Amino acid sequence: MRSKIVAASVLLFLVGFAVFHQRLVRAGETIATPGYKVLEPIRHGNLTVFPVVAAKSYPTNEFITLDDGLRSGEVVVTEAGNVQGLIRHHGTPAIHHDGAEVNRLVLVNNSKRPLLLLAGEVVSGGKQDRVIGKDRIVPAESDPIDLSVFCVEHGRWVASSEHFGASEAMYGAAAHGSSTVGGPVPAPMAIMVQPSIRAKAMAGKNQQEVWDEVSKQKEALVARVAPTAPAAAETIGGVSSYAKANENEEVRKYVDSVAKPIEQNYQSVIRQLRDRNAVGVVVAVNGRIIWADIFASTDLLSKYWPKLVRSYASEAFVTRAKEMAVTTKQADAFLADMEGRKETIESEPGIYRHTEVTGDGFKAFELTSLLPKTGFEVHVAKMAD
Prior knowledge:
Blueprint: H1 2-26, E1 36-38, E2 42-44, E3 47-54, E4 64-65, H2 66-72, E5 75-79, E6 84-86, E7 95-96, E8 104-109, E9 115-117, E10 122-125, E11 130-132, E12 136-138, E13 145-151, E14 164-165, H3 195-204, H4 207-225, H5 230-238, H6 242-247, H7 249-272, E15 278-285, E16 288-295, H8 298-318, H9 328-336, E17 342-348, E18 352-359, E19 362-369, E20 377-384
Parallel strand pairs: 4-9
Antiparallel strand pairs: 1-3, 2-3, 3-15, 5-8, 6-7, 8-13, 9-12, 10-11, 10-14, 11-13, 15-16, 16-20, 17-18, 18-19, 19-20
């Protein structure tokens, strides 16, 4: 008799939980991760981009991007050796560096708003160009923080400027006088490296692997450009900077030819789907799904979209293989699978939580804001192994 009562109680609990779960879904709330829907793709050449809409959007207006901060001067990035005796609050020891270090920069956010940094963003200048190694949030009016980075310019160790800034690389025609969709010409942006290099920084976390991938991609650029523009290929082969290699006119022309149609088409999709919360993309090159970038809001996606699409186009430029068809069903399955065998969590209490998920054939990276009135995932990146 007792076993029957226990079984009935368990059944009632499960039914009640299911009803509760469905109510939350209908209300647009989520228990774990938001529900996403993958839409029909936008294709150009060997690059395919699937727009993604979300069940819910979150308020992200308080965040500034690295581009916002560098442009206004409110965010300062410099070599560690240029900062002496700047003391953090809460009893943390002062920063003392005797000199610059390849994998360390110092960043100060003087803005009154929190700063969002994405892995893969490049800051140019200092003794070498660097790429940010992981997503993170820097609080408003922060003390100087040590910023873990990877060099993407093997060989140079001579300061080109005291501070770091944005680059015109991979920003294409917009950086040279052409207008963008629905607005004036923006200033140069902190570029985003292509997914293959971004993966080495985020997942590999190894400087030599990043250097090796940069060299591999530069060689691929030379091979692609050499048949039609041998002088340009020689120039590309002679520069140390990943950003400078991508600033080459021949490279920019091709990247523009792929990126601009997709950028404009998706800008139109964003406008049309704003009410449906267009928040990201799943990306395929030559019919193989390689990446997904998902944001907490349409506004945040819009800020990053111009440089993201150029990073995808750069990957497509150097990836030559037999093209295959990729379906919306495949993209939807890729995005839906977030269950991993291993989770690694890093956290700054009250600021952010960074979760790395390792699954079968993929790695995913989730940045969750822990600032007051947030508690949501600001950015999710997923890469195919």
